[in-house]
């Protein structure tokens, strides 16, 4: 039985019950539970940010690995060209030294005039010079490709190390969140036990007040229902964006209530950048699965010029959502939550707002 309802019961019955357990112990436990709940919420926010940092590390690693593939192809081309050039020069040398005249002396002896001698020797020299230039150019290209390959190998290692470090942070925050969630569950169990003890001690004096308790409990449940419905719900009439990509918000609205899923980017579950990426993909715009990378797309938009469909950023670019108009945005907040409508003017989002980008 909630302690709030227990207090209502006491007030309605006109009597102060004799508690088997001091009321202060429940208050202390409830205060402790509130503190731990706040910690869990902060850890959830940290988890969402760590998720986006892992997304960004994956994005960077994929870019480096793509460059490595391109570089390998270029190296193969350079090696093939070098091989062809060497073969051509070898064949030319064979031709020069096996087909008469095969030496400079024979060129001189076989010539009918001085001009013919000079022309023949100069031709051989020019052919040799051109061949050398070709080989030098191919070898230079090959060396450059190799140097870039070495740099990319280093970049690949750094990107992998960054990804591993971000994954360790993600695992650490997840572990902390799970530990605090488990502790919160234990404290809530202790609160329930204390409340049960209070109920047992009060039953003798509470018969007349049971009806009042039921009525009060119904009122509290009704209030909880109203509080729980403060966000945008399916079936309401959201403000639709009037822009080049007016369909983006409409797409995102279809998934109100969809669970937050780490690294999710499909209707079964989304993380924050996954929701934005998927929604834009449905209107033909390709965005990266990373809030940090998304910041490099489109153009900046001031807060007073926001239009539906603009991408809004928070928490040092660690969180992202879609503006829907009227000061609201749609987002996939964090683990344990769902896709929902939130206000830019809420304390946390107002204080952690970074800026917005408009996809043109």
Total helices: the number is 9
Helix-strand topology string: HHHHHHEEHHEEEEEHE
**What does the largest sheet look like?**
6 strands, antiparallel
Give me the secondary-structure category.
Answer: alpha+beta
Distance between the termini: 55 Å
Q: Radius of gyration in whole Å, from Cα?
A: 37 Å
Level of helix content?
A: 55-70%
Instruction: Trace the largest sheet across and list its strands.
Output: 3-8-4-5-6-7
Which geometry do the CA atoms define?
elongated
Runs in which pLDDT lies below 50 for 5 or more consecutive residues are 1-23, 210-242
Number of strands: 8
Percent of residues in beta strands? Answer: 5-15%
Q: What is the typical, i.e. mean, pLDDT?
A: 77
Features of the shown structure:
elongated; 360 residues; alpha+beta; disordered N terminus; two-stranded antiparallel ribbon; 63% helix
Descriptive notes:
Helix content is 63%, strand content 9%. It is α+β, with helices and mostly antiparallel strands. Helix 1 crosses helix 5. It starts with a helix and ends with a strand. The N terminus is likely disordered.
List strands and helices in order, with pairings:
Elements: H1 3-13, H2 23-98, H3 104-110, H4 114-202, H5 210-228, H6 247-253, E1 265-266, E2 269-270, H7 272-281, H8 291-294, E3 299-301, E4 311-314, E5 319-325, E6 328-331, E7 340-343, H9 347-351, E8 353-358
Antiparallel strand pairs: 1-2, 3-8, 4-5, 4-8, 5-6, 6-7
Helix pairs in contact: 1-5, 2-4, 3-4, 6-7
């Amino acid at each position: 039985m909630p302690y709030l309802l227990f207090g209502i019961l006491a007030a309605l019955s006109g009597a102060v019950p004799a508690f088997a357990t001091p009321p202060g112990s429940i208050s202390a436990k409830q205060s402790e539970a509130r503190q731990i709940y706040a910690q869990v919420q902060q850890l959830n926010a940290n988890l969402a940010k760590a998720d986006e940092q892992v997304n960004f590390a994956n994005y960077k690693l994929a870019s480096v690995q793509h460059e490595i593939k391109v570089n390998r192809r270029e190296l193969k081309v350079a090696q093939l060209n070098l091989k062809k050039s060497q073969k051509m020069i070898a064949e030319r040398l064979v031709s020069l030294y096996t087909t008469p005249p095969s030496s400079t002396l024979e060129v001189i002896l076989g010539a009918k005039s001085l001009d013919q001698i000079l022309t023949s020797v100069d031709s051989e020299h020019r052919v040799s010079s051109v061949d050398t230039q070709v080989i030098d150019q191919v070898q230079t290209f090959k060396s450059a490709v190799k140097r870039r390959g070495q740099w990319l190998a280093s970049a690949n290692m750094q990107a992998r190390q960054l990804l591993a470090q971000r994954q360790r942070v993600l695992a650490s925050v997840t572990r902390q969140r799970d530990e605090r969630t488990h502790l919160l569950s234990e404290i809530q169990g202790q609160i329930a036990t204390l409340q049960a003890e209070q109920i047992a001690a009060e039953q003798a004096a509470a018969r007349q007040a049971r009806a009042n308790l039921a009525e009060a409990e119904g009122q509290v449940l009704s209030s909880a229902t109203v509080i729980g419905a403060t966000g945008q719900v399916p079936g309401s009439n959201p403000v639709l964006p009037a822009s080049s990509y007016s369909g983006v918000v409409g797409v995102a609205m279809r998934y109100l209530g969809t669970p937050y899923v780490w690294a999710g980017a499909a209707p079964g579950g989304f993380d924050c950048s996954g929701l934005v990426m998927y929604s834009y993909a449905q209107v033909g715009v390709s965005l990266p699965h990373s809030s940090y990378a998304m910041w490099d797309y489109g153009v900046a938009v001031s807060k007073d010029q926001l239009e539906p469909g603009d991408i809004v950023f928070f928490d040092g670019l660690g969180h992202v959502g879609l503006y829907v108009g009227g000061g609201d945005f749609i987002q996939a907040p964090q683990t344990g939550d769902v896709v929902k409508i939130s206000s830019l003017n809420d304390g946390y989002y107002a204080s952690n707002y970074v800026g917005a980008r408009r996809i043109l």
